[in-house]
Amino acid sequence: MVSMEHPLFALKAGDRRVRTYERNGLVVTVKPGSDGCATIHDKDLWIYCISQLVEAKNRGRPITPIVRFTTYDFLRSTNRSIGGGRLPPCSRYACKAERDWHRD
Predict the structure, then answer these.
(1) Nearest of 69, 76, 71 to residue 97 by alpha carbon
(2) The model's pTM
């Protein structure tokens, strides 16, 4: 799925539209939470959470809809400063992945 063809990120914060994409019989539905859909500024967080899910699958661990991690691990993995100061906005969120993938 090409990201420009099917954008998963909102251009502005607070976008609460449900997006449904279909291609080759596969349907993906993106349902934003109460704060709205993820923005492009949340992309590192999404990639980090997805990598954690893939790692769990590769190690035979159960995959759950909630990914728990520490701010320190996230900042180190994304090559961000851990020396104090203001934390990025994504450190306030828990990463919850809710998937609705099915074939027609």
Answers:
(1) 69
(2) 0.56
